[in-house]
């Protein structure tokens, strides 16, 4: 039985996000701060990574003033409260085939989440991809949610947002158990 740990390379990994509203959508990126993944006999068995919530970027708003205003709003208490909660995290609790189950923590609230992931290993390099669909209201992000506010019309923001995660990691430790 062989267990390998892989350190996530933050500069080679990325998270793309999409948030949708009645009148359209916004998309961007958010940075991974650090993390690691564990494999046993080439299969994912666990791991954790931390996201820097203050690194959120908006890619589809080209006007600098509008982009800065929206970025500040996403950092505010209406959304991610980045000053109070500078990090979010995902800790893998179990894996069955391609299905990953973990604990997602946003704004100090932890909820279970499951998603499919594809993991490839080549030598001491690992790549992993997965797409998460997250209900923001479970983490106290209620701004313009139809679940909490009436008559929003075109101002409604959908509860679910998407994260498309691509991780690159390098083997750092190998443990051989007999």
UniProtKB/TrEMBL annotation:
Residues 5-170 form the Lipid/polyisoprenoid-binding YceI-like domain. InterPro entries: Lipid/polyisoprenoid-bd_YceI (IPR007372), TTHA0802/YceI-like_sf (IPR036761). It holds the Pfam family YceI. SUPFAM superfamilies: YceI-like. Gene3D superfamilies: Lipid/polyisoprenoid-binding, YceI-like. It comes from the Bacteria. This is YceI family protein.
């Amino acid at each position: 039985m062989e267990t390998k740990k892989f350190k996530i390379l933050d500069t080679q990994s990325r998270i793309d996000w999409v948030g949708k509203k009645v009148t359209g959508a916004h998309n961007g990126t958010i940075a991974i701060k650090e993390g690691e993944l564990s494999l046993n006999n080439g299969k994912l068995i666990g791991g954790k990574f931390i996201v820097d919530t203050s690194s959120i970027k908006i890619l589809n708003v080209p006007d600098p003033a509008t982009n800065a205003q929206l970025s500040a709003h996403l950092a505010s208490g209406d959304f991610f409260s980045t000053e109070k909660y500078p990090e979010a995290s995902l800790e893998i609790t179990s894996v069955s085939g391609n299905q990953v189950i973990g604990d997602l923590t946003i704004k100090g609230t932890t909820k279970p989440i499951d998603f499919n992931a594809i993991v490839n290993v080549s030598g001491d390099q690992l790549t992993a991809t997965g797409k998460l669909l997250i209900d923001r209201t479970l983490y106290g992000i209620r701004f313009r949610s139809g679940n909490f506010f009436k008559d929003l019309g075109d101002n409604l923001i959908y509860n679910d947002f998407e994260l498309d995660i691509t991780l690159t990691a390098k083997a750092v430790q190998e443990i051989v158990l007999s």
